[in-house]
Amino acid sequence: MLYRESGQYKTSYTDDQAIFPLKQDRWLMAIALVIAFVVIPLTSSEYMLEAVIIPFLIFALAAIGLNLLAGYCGQISLGTGGFMAVGGYTAYKLTTSLPDMNMIIVFLLSGVAAAFVGIMFGIPSLRIKGFYLAVATLAAQFFLQWLFNKVEWFYNYNPSGTITAPPREMFGFVVTGPHATAEARYMITLVVVAVLALVAKNLTRGHIGRSWMAIRDMDIAAEIIGIRPLHAKLSAFAISSFYCGVAGSLFVFTWLGSVETEAFNINLSFQVLFMVIIGGLGSILGSFIGAAFITAVPILLTNAPQFFGFNLPIDLQKHFEVMIFGVLIIFFVIVEPHGLARLWQITKEKLRLWPFPY
Amino acid sequence: MNETRNIGDTLLKVDNISLSFGGVKAITGVSLEIREREICAIIGPNGAGKTSMLNVINGFYHPQEGTITFGGEVRKQMRPHLAAAGGIARTFQNVALFTGMSTLDNIMTGRNLKMKKNFLWQALNIGPARKEELEHREFVEHIIDFLEIEAIRKTPVGRLPYGLQKRVELGRALAAEPKLLLLDEPMAGMNVEEKEDMCRFILDTNDEFGTTIGLIEHDMGVVMDLSDHVVVLDHGEKIADGVPDVVRADQNVIDAYLGVAHD
């Protein structure tokens, strides 16, 4: 009953092609946006924003990026961390050499830089597929990490080898650097992520998205139709890396503030890949759910024992946390191999009739 | 029948094509012509080189010898995207749909070549990109009506039964508004009713859109009824070419299908 579409007539193709053709979905989205833009900044503590919500948004953006490539175009990549590093270091070089540049432009340009690097490392995808491609993209991960560590120019010859976000203002607020409030950093992250998520949704619904999915599902038939694998695959690599690059610059500028190359190591790539797989390949919503799962569950598990009044030794608690987290991942992958987004889809279908059996 | 059929000039001419994979000769010196607005059947026993011939026309296989003339241009070899841009569409023997996408999206993908708006418009989904999308949606809806698949518009094609999948695949090929439509065994594995439906769609396509059709089929009843002209291949060579009645009576064809007595 909750998800009934009866009575919602669509009289034009415009209505039928809307992002959320159902009234219920539009309401849910509106509520989510109100919570994100109004409720969270007013009510959340600094710790909550710093430790949970900002990283969730940034990881969601990186997961969208990888999802465009792996979920929509079917090209597996393990270079996410490397592409995020390109974004982070580009943003750092841009802000330090051109101090007056608008931060939004910095974020976009860091995405563009990552897109070019992505195209370069996407070239092997024209020849190899599947696991072999995954291994080839590992080269991007290791090479880029090595490059940013080795060439001192990238971190402005700083002896500690770290890059630190300089303080920059937007609309009179300090949005980056050590003195920026969590709220300001949250808002700028939110705006970037929300806009880019909408763009991703639009891209996947149009002919570009369809050409990616065609390559994913049946590349021979796609070629017959006139889709050129070169264009489709490299554009997927470019746009995916753009998202990862922007996520990488946010990672440095609005979340951590100061990082070493080690922050962009292979673990980061795997983490984003898990988000995509658990959230759901080929789903923008799934990227958000996956990112929420991977970033929020460990924190919940950390806080759960105190909440229930247990006092476990800290090392034992840490072990439990890892074990339970692992079990949960296995559980969800077995229950729904198509990801949590699919689970949500099934729930919605059930809710059409609920509480009646048919 | 021919006087009412309004068959035009040669649309596709394959001249003296030879294709081999290493030592295996798939096609040897085959020439054939398909004329505008006709239905041409390519038949032959298994392994005769029929599908290889379609792959050559499509640009998947690159023949070692011979030329392909399509729409006035002579080529040594075809390329898939050139074939698609020139107006050659095809379906596959074993259905090759995009299983993760809905029927509507599959057919919309068929129009990809006609959608030109760049990705900045697409990203914002405003103005030209949106208008373009709606125009193509309208065209695709005509095809959906034509093929009587309205009810499965939003269903992922992976879930559809075989007969409907074949129909969606035909829809995807039609979406490109092809000049030449190549059908690789469109009726394989179908029951009588499904075959009748498919025949009707093929004839209607030919009749209403004036599409030239090249067809591979094993059901001789269908072939003889539908086609204006039949080409018979055997062991990679052409053994007969002509109107159905002539081909049916050809001794070489009978031998190829029934075998020759060795005594």
Mind explaining what this structure looks like?
The complex is a heterodimer of chains A (358) and B (263). Chain A contains 14 helices and four strands. Chain A is mostly helical and 358 residues long. In chain A, the strands form two sheets. Chain A has a two-stranded antiparallel ribbon. Chain A has a two-stranded antiparallel sheet with strand order 2-3. In chain A, strand 2 and strand 3 form a beta hairpin. Chain B has two domains: 173 residues, Rossmann fold, CATH 3.40.50.300; 74 residues, no CATH class. Helix content of chain B is 40%, strand content 24%. In chain B, the strands form two sheets. A six-stranded mixed β-sheet of chain B has the order 6-7-8-3-9-10, with helices on both faces. A four-stranded antiparallel β-sheet of chain B has the order 2-1-4-5, with helices on one face. The radius of gyration of chain B is 19 Å and the shape is globular. The mean pLDDT of chain B is 89. Chains A and B meet through helix 7, helix 8 and helix 9 of A and helix 3, helix 4, helix 5 and helix 6 of B.
